[in-house]
Amino acid sequence: MAAAVPRVGVGVLVVNKAHSAVVVGRRRSSVGDSKYALPGGHLEFGETWEECAAREVLEETGLIIHNVQFAGVTNTVMLKERRPCHYVTIFMQGELLDPTQEPENLESDKCHGWEWVEWPSIPEPVFEPLQTFLKSGYKLKNAAMSVSFQVFFGWILDKELTAENWLFDCVRYGISRLRVHVFGFSLALGVIQMKEALEI
């Protein structure tokens, strides 16, 4: 019999500033069994979405995340499951605190294992709430891009600022997307010219 009331779940897009993949795993559950899903779980009483996201990721994968932000929400009624249910799923995005850390399967009774998968190319079959979220076209907030701009604006008062240095740090910080290079290179040249004009 279907649950009498909807339940609130939290799904977490765990991102690494070194690439554009997220952590996914195949579920072991009476709901969505063997389907690919994100780390996550139920929102506990008195808990914020950010707290729930960080807690669930740590419990399930051992990963420590920060900069947790809201990504979206879905409303999913799953009547064809062995245990029919209704879930409101809050999706959050969190950045890996240590970029070298790898996920561990700490709850093997709930998941077959975790892996990095390029977003949004999640393998089939996909757990229904995540499937609905994918249709929204959500784009990851690229942590690597944020790092590059922090470095760039740190250069503004640096007399050694050059376009070559900009490209060097793009490579050093693992930023490979063409639009980042083009925009950043143009921005760098503009600031170089401004500095020369002001003689700073």
TrEMBL record:
Record-linked InterPro entries: Nudix_hydrolase (IPR020476), NUDIX_hydrolase-like_dom_sf (IPR015797), NUDIX_hydrolase_CS (IPR020084), NUDIX_hydrolase_dom (IPR000086)
Pfam families linked to this entry: NUDIX
Keyword Cell membrane: no
CC per GO annotation: cytosol
UniProt-listed CDD domains: NUDIX_MTH2_Nudt15
Plastid in keyword set: no
Keywords: Hydrolase
Domain Nudix hydrolase: 5-139
SUPFAM superfamilies found in the cross-reference section: Nudix
Similarity section: Belongs to the Nudix hydrolase family.
Protein name (database record): Nudix hydrolase domain-containing protein
Organism: Adiantum capillus-veneris (Maidenhair fern)
